[in-house]
Amino acid sequence: MQFLPKTIPEIQSEILPVNESPPELVTFDVGGMKCAGCAKAVERQLMQYSGVISACVNLAVEVATVECQPGAVDAEALAKKLTDNGFPSQSRSGENQQEAEAATIERRGQEIRQQIKQLTIALILIILSGLGHVLGTKAPILSNIWFHWGLATLALLLPGRPIIVDGCRSLWRNAPNMNTLVALGAVTAYTASNAALLFPRMGWECFFDEPVMLLGFILLGKTLEQQARRRAASALQALIALQPAKARLVDFKLSSLDWRSEELPLNSTSEVYNPQYIEIPADRVRVGEWLQVLPGEKIPVDGEICEGKTTIDESMLTGESMPVLKQPGDTVAAGTINKSGAVVMRATRTGKETTVAQMVALVQAAQTRKAPIQNLADTVAGYFVYGVMAISVLTFLFWYFAGTHIWPSVLLGHGAMNMGHGAMNMGNELPIIHYQSPLLLSLKLAIAVLVIACPCALGLATPTAILVGSGIGAERGLLIRGGDVLERVHQLDTVVFDKTGTLTTGNLTLTDYLPIFQNSEWDLNSDINVGNKQDVCSTIDGVSGNKQDVCSTIDGVSGNRQDACSTIDSKLLQIAAAVERGACHPIAAAILLEAQQQGLPLLAAEDFYTEPGLGVSALVEGRRVFAGNAEWMKDQGVAVATQLSGSLQGKTAVYVASEGVLLGVIGLKDTLRPDAKAAVERLRGMGLRVMMLTGDTPSAAAATAQQLDLTAADVLAGVRPEGKARAIATLQAQGCKVAVVGDGINDAPALAQADVGIGLHCGTDVAVETAQIVLMRNALMDVVESIELGRATFNKIRQNLFWAFGYNTLGIPVAAGILLPATGILLSPAAAGAFMAFSSVSVVTNSLFLRRGFRA
User: Which of 97, 132, 377, 457 has its C-alpha lying 20 to 30 A from 125's C-alpha?
Assistant: First the structure.
């Protein structure tokens, strides 16, 4: 069935402006953050600095990104301010970036080792405390109350000391955090137990086991959480490790150079003045220098193969496991691995401009950009600790002054879920404990409220999911720029593909020559030096298979079939190639390639002019020649026979005219990508509307659309480059959430206008700022995979936030004793601490489960 796709009229929809002078971005490694409250405190301090526009802090990777006015912020001074306020920081800007990265890795390693040491001590104390209860009178020393006092004291002084000190300092700085809550709970329990021990007449219970178990569970949870966070960041660390440290610099002009060997030439007398090669740091290589790369080594910088042949493993950049053959003239990317042969390459991009460096920068930036859904968690985190302390105080006051009087039976502790003296397993039903003091019960409940609240779960919910998702994407060559992009991906309902070079291969081939030359002043009988003259009819017959129709058309239009089918096809191609030489477009490349293959000499041309989306013009042999589409011919006052358009149905037609006379038309055809139809079907199966946007003719667009089973309503044809953004804006005005898939260059306005811009096969052009998702491989199925990854990651964020809010919403009331009157359930401080530790670990672990759905 034939149909004509609709074209886009001139509309007045508002197009998003492009910021021509983006603000400066400064990145900091920030230490000392314990929970979401700390992250919020760091953001507040950064925002107070003059010149800062916005600040985003990632708790999971301990990185802060500051958006500031260009040249208005001293990074070192800002880092010093954070350090003075209790958050040791170091900027990543300038020459100290690599040193800062190494220092950060070393600092995190020391923290983990210190945590493991503290956890080991805490577990030993818990075991000793438990043995005292298990053995009872069989081990009088272990069951002695003073022995348990000693264990509690050691727990506070050794493994608990960093927590207590940090919690007190944070409270003093008016930025209380998770450690503040734990410190208040542990110290309060220890103090109350000391009062019971020293003043037995009060009838209080000693619960020295509470601070021991509380600190042990907290340290266990923090250690597991830290390990899980390291696993989540493993993909990024592997990407960073790809950046080579050394490069082998060679002088390619040396006549004695053997580029396949590591040995010095025989006539070399000095390793300094006449070396075979010199090893230098990879970040000091300059553009244009020659480098030797041996089998098994990493490519040090982006470059071009000059000598040798090899295969390159590009799996870490593209996710493609099969090595790629590279020969002289082919490009190679830094960090990829030379598998088979020794080569000499010329550096084209170095330092931060290399592909792998830009990938690292994109992934790091993605991990600091928050999803809008995180805003609620950030708002809550800023006041969370204060709110918990207030609830703890209210819990104490309620139970001491009212609760124990309203429900006096709670003082008997029937069926209490406790973890006091004489029990080890959290949640076990304990013997009835006779609480003689309302003060002690109220104090225990207040302590439980302090330690069960978990601001960490709120702070880790979004960044850990983004950390894992961006890492998975980096492993597969899918670079998603941040949490805000993930949220927009989740909202998508429409995907718009560019046609040429995206749905199709972009490698146009000539299929038809239709010379006219009617009433033209061009000399048809001139002796042109043509190396490969072909009969237009035979050419059409062999290439396109439509000899009869085309020759009939020529008969009808020119009336001189014999002449048209002789040599003028080569003349037409010569003229078109001369004009297209001044253009940079797949159509121009195809015409020039065909002229080269036929051995046609290029005619002299000058004064080139290009009208984007229409065509080109130039002075050829003193005559102004135009080559372009039918609209371009109409603008030049050239009439185009309808028979010509009909004979080129489904193809791209390039009309050639001079001085108001049509010289002929050239037909070109593009082939569909092998995975195009499968990708479109998968996207439809995900509930997305798939559309095609092209500047090509409606007939050419219709031919491609029919192969993809797209309807006329889903094809926007004849859209000029400046109109593509308006077309996307029109869809958005209709309420659509639109993703645009293009090459990231010609489609930049549409990519910027879209809710999500997807740059396909950017390769070494990773820094396409208009694309929110950058796909490193030349595969349309990656579009599907990137949307699936975005949806899955965003779902993890929602699950994590639901758990974090739900845990605190349910846990705090239970710890405050809401179930105590009806069920007798009472959470001891140690049990509350265990739940708190579990909540943080569960959020990080849930994020790690994201990998299950994206295994290679």
Answer: 457
Q: Which residues have CB under 8 Å from 20's CB, separation 6+?
A: none
Helix 36-47 and helix 455-475: axis angle, to 10°? Answer: 80
| 155: Cα separation from own chain's centroid | 43
Residue with tokens 């042999």: 621
CA 693 to chain centre: 26
**Region label for 121, one of left (φ > 0), alpha (ψ between -120 and 50) or beta (otherwise):** alpha
Q: What is the pLDDT of residues 716-750, one digit of tens each?
A: 988 877 788 899 999 999 999 999 998 755 677 88
Residues 787 and 494 sit within 8 Å (Cβ to Cβ): no
pTM equals 0.75
State the number of CA atoms in the 13 A half-sphere of 264 facing the CB: 12
pLDDT score for 837: 82
Least confident residue range of 516-530, 695-709, 762-776 = 516-530
**Which pLDDT score is estimated for 491?**
92
Name residue 491's amino acid: Q
CA distance 178 to 41: 13
- Look at strands 343-349 and 615-620 and give their pairing: unpaired
- How far apart are the C-alpha atoms of 52 and 70, rounded to whole Å? 10
Known catalytic residues?
498
Whole-angstrom Cα Rg for the chain? 36
Closest-CA residue to 676 (of 494, 493, 544, 501)? 501
Question: Environment class of residue 717 by beta-carbon count within 10 Å: exposed (0-12), middle (13-18) or buried (19+)?
Answer: buried
Q: Quote the tokens at residue 181.
A: 């809550």
Encoded amino acid at 677, one letter: K
| pLDDT of 10 higher than 50 | no
